[in-house]
Design a protein that fits this description.
Blueprint (H helix, E strand, L loop, with lengths): L5 H41 L8 E5 L4 E11 L6 E6 L3 H4 L3 E5 L3 E5 L5 E5 L5 E10 L2 E4 H12 L10 E5 L5 E5 L3 E5 L6 H17 L2 E2 L4 E2 L2 H32 L4 H13 L4 H24 L14 H25 L3 H9 L4 H30 L4 H4 L26 H10 L4 H37 L4
Antiparallel strand pairs: 1-2, 1-5, 2-3, 3-4, 6-7, 6-11, 7-8, 7-9, 9-10, 12-13
Helix pairs in contact: 1-13, 5-8, 5-10, 6-8, 7-8, 8-10, 9-10, 10-13, 12-13
């Protein structure tokens, strides 16, 4: 018979009915927040590469300038709003951004002949193309723009020595060598199809080129390569050590007080701040082991360090140590879920303990091992603090992999997307220009982690189907 009064029973029934809705609401809220994050990164990151409309603005004072309208803000205790324009032309006007009170604007237009040049070392130019001079030849007007487009389509090494004659919206003439121009756009005269093509080309340059202009321009290919290579090396290092440690704790070690103490220590290591691992890697790996290797094998190059300074190897080892507890715990939980009857049946059929472990237990625990590796990749790919101490660089002059023996240079410094994101956001000379690249780099980092994780998840799912295991 039901116990308790009728009101208490109704209260319990009400709580039982409310509990699933609270759980569903929590899941929905989590997905909504994740979707909002990805939407923000997509819109702000990929939108940066879209050819934006250029405006020619005439102020009431008679001054004229050209630029891209970025945003408007309402100033407190002041009438009217202000608009931020990206004007470029830092070599001429000593500034790339300009705030303008909207009430001060007398006229604004979108002329089709306004162009935007991506160049170095002075970043973007916004103005008009007057002519192109090449030896004894000269092109003007539409012919100059067509010639510029054809020249930029050539590889940099094959471009002839040419000079661009430009003029700003205020009427100031500029000479620009073609060799320093990366791309040119006339966004006001472009169709949607042309803008889409230009957007895809800009995204490709971002993914395939190196950074420039103090990381506020160019691409992130060295950082992509360094991030993926470091994560792969870290996974190759941490997986065997984590799996062997879990096998010892669960299958070999005596289950006594000492083993329980070791398990508690491993779980506590997972909560140690990552910067502490960076300090350990700097002291033990870089200065300790690396310094000893320099004394033994590279004494003729001292005091210039080979392994006694931060590099790809020490960064991978440091992150392997950081993620080792995660792999151990995940693998050990998978081993613990394997029924004891599986082990006893293998031994009863004549298998040795080693054969039982290698042919029965480990294949059934493979999904759990991959789960540990997935968690390790997710944490290691986004870590920045320890890498700042053991090998990451703002700009690596040489890639860790090249055509020279031994092809993989573990002693070299490398670039990392997480550190590139940090450096671009806080150490750039132009915060406004860096903001879109911060969003684009963050989106790229999320996508790389997602791809690496999905690869391991699909492999885990495949192993589960092959083995019929629910581990």
């Amino acid at each position: 018979m039901p116990t308790g009064s009728a009101p208490s029973r109704r209260r319990r029934h009400w709580l039982d009915g409310l509990w699933p809705w609270l759980c569903a609401a929590s899941v929905a809220l989590s997905l909504l927040m994740l979707g909002a994050l990805l939407t923000l990164l997509l819109v702000r990151g990929l939108g940066h590469f879209w050819p934006a409309t250029l405006e020619e603005v005439t102020l009431r004072s008679g001054e004229t300038f050209a630029g891209q309208a970025v945003r408007e803000v309402a100033l407190p205790q002041q009438p009217g709003d202000e608009r931020l324009y990206f004007t470029g032309n830092r070599d001429i006007e000593d500034a790339r951004w300009r705030w303008v009170a909207i009430d001060d604007i007398a006229m604004q237009a979108q002329p089709a002949d306004l162009i935007r040049l991506e160049r170095s070392p002075w970043d973007d130019f916004i103005g008009r193309l007057v002519a192109i001079e090449q030896h004894d030849q000269r092109w003007e007007g539409d012919a100059a723009w067509q010639q510029l487009t054809s020249l930029l389509a050539l590889p940099v090494s094959q471009r002839p020595d040419s000079q661009l004659l430009l003029i700003t919206a205020s009427g100031q003439a500029v000479q620009q060598p073609l060799a320093n121009v990366a791309s040119a756009q006339a966004p006001n005269a472009m169709t949607w199809r042309q803008k889409t093509l230009a957007w895809s080309q800009s995204v490709w340059r971002f993914l395939s080129e190196g950074p420039r202009a103090a990381n506020t321009g160019g691409g992130v290919w060295p950082a992509i390569f360094g991030t993926v290579l470091m994560v792969i090396l870290m996974s190759l290092i941490v997986t065997p050590f984590g799996v062997l440690a879990a096998i010892y704790l669960n299958e070999i070690a005596h289950q006594g007080r000492l083993t329980r103490f070791v398990r508690i220590g491993v779980r506590n290591l997972a909560g140690v701040p990552s910067i502490v691992y960076g300090v350990f890697g700097l002291g033990v790996f870089v200065y300790g082991i690396g310094g000893s290797l320099d004394e033994w094998f590279f004494s003729d190059t001292l005091p210039s360090s080979t392994f006694g300074t931060g590099g790809l190897l020490w960064a991978s080892l440091t992150l392997a140590l950081l993620t080792l507890p995660v792999v151990i715990v995940a693998t050990e939980e998978g081993l613990a879920r394997i029924p004891e009857a599986q082990r006893e049946g293998a031994v009863a059929l004549g298998a040795t303990r080693l054969e039982m472990l290698t042919r029965i237990v480990l294949p059934m625990a493979a999904p759990a091992m991959l789960t540990g590796m997935i968690l390790a990749i997710a944490r290691a790919a986004g870590e920045v603090a320890p890498l700042m101490l053991v090998g990451v660089a703002k700009l690596a002059p040489q890639m860790p992999v090249d055509g020279e023996f031994p092809y993989l240079h573990l002693e070299r410094k490398f670039m990392h997307l997480g550190y590139h994101l940090f450096d671009t956001a806080f150490h750039g000379d132009d915060v406004q220009a860096a903001i879109p690249l911060v969003y684009a780099t963050a989106l790229l980092l999320v996508l790389i982690v997602l791809v690496l994780n999905l690869t391991a998840i699909f492999l885990r799912h495949y192993l589960r189907r092959q083995r019929g295991s629910e581990c």
